[in-house]
């Protein structure tokens, strides 16, 4: 959705409340997963996930209060350099998937991109989290990353992806390397590996099944 007219700030605020932050609001359909916009209604469950010390460590996050989580949600939706989706496990969707229905019953994680390299705005850092243990090991994390990267190529013109992963996070390292990411650098201070991949070297599938939320 475009933000235009005499009061763009007000329009952006309205869009932020509706969950799109003025960046457009889409869903992306996969075989096992559906990516949907991160809405305010998703925040309480997201906040519950982020009480788990293992998830905080794996995602290099700090514990937040629920009020802080709502603030972070708002800042993410307003930030034009970030795009976040909630990952739905299709097997957990009650009834049929319907755009506009937040489907909190099926939310299992999130995937996001962040265009945070000032030297290259077509480079995006990508993060994935499948928080619900019952939905791990089903190929959902892998599919969610691939859907998000294809979306980022199509909607943001991204040509390179980067992932920063703790050296102890063997599952995530294996996942990104399996997709074709190569080690680019290592930080001894943060004990973290930076991996990168050009978009055209990744097994991205087009056309995407994508729709307006
Ligand atoms: C890492 C994570 C995203 C994997 O999600 P998932 O949906 O369970 O993974 P998938 O079922 O799609 O597995 C895809 C590949 O990842 C790797 N993988 C996933 N879980 C693994 C595990 N426990 N041990 C080793 N490799 C693993 C494998 O290569 C697997 O492919 P294979 O089954 O053909 O061997 C999930 O465990 C998670 O969110 N962990 C906590 C948060 C985190 O570490 N985020 C990454 C920060 S960028």
TrEMBL record:
Signal peptide: none annotated. Belongs to the acetyltransferase family. GNAT subfamily. Keywords: Acyltransferase, Transferase. This is N-acetyltransferase domain-containing protein. The keyword Glycosyltransferase does not apply. The lineage of its organism: Eukaryota, Viridiplantae, Streptophyta, Embryophyta, Tracheophyta. SUPFAM superfamilies: Acyl-CoA N-acyltransferases (Nat) (SSF55729). The keyword Transmembrane helix does not apply.
């Amino acid at each position: 959705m475009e933000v235009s007219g005499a009061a763009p700030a007000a329009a952006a605020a309205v869009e932020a409340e509706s969950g799109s932050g003025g960046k457009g609001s889409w869903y992306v359909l996969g075989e096992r997963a559906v990516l949907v916009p991160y809405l305010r209604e998703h925040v309480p469950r997201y906040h519950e996930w982020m009480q788990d010390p293992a998830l905080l460590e794996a995602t290099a996050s700090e514990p937040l209060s629920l009020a802080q989580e709502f603030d972070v949600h708002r800042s993410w939706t307003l930030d034009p350099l970030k795009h976040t989706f909630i990952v739905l496990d299709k097997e957990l969707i009650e009834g049929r998937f319907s755009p506009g229905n937040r489907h909190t019953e099926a939310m299992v994680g999130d995937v996001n991109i962040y265009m945070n390299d000032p030297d290259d705005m077509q480079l995006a850092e990508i993060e994935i989290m499948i928080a619900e243990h019952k939905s791990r090991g089903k190929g959902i994390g892998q599919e969610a990353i691939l859907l998000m990267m294809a979306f980022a190529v199509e909607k943001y013109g991204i040509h390179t992806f980067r992932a920063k992963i703790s050296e102890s996070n063997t599952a995530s390292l294996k996942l990104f390397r399996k997709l074709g990411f190569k080690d680019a650098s290592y930080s001894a201070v943060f004990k973290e590996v930076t991996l990168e991949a050009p978009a055209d070297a990744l097994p991205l599938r087009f056309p995407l099944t994508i729709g307006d939320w």
